[in-house]
Design goal:
This protein is α+β, with helices and mostly antiparallel strands and 64 residues long. It has one domain. It has 2 helices and 2 strands; from the N terminus they run ββαα. It has a two-stranded antiparallel ribbon.
């Protein structure tokens, strides 16, 4: 099980580590980076599934 995700120079995160458990809820004010955390996890999942960076960024990953 993944216990943490480190984001370095990813969108608005200079160097942050997010510790996660079996159920992790992310809350925060508007423009605080919640969607950027989702994007980081989506990126990792896409790379792990064998998608290219172009497919992930171009929206082909996860479509349909």
């Amino acid at each position: 099980m993944i216990t943490s995700v480190r984001m370095v120079n990813f969108k608005n995160f200079a160097d942050e580590t997010l510790k996660v458990g079996p159920l992790t809820v992310i809350v925060g004010a508007n423009a605080s980076g919640k969607s950027n955390i989702r994007d980081a996890l989506r990126f990792l999942h896409g790379i792990g599934r064998g998608y290219t960076l172009a497919e992930i960024l171009g929206g082909k990953y996860g479509a349909g």
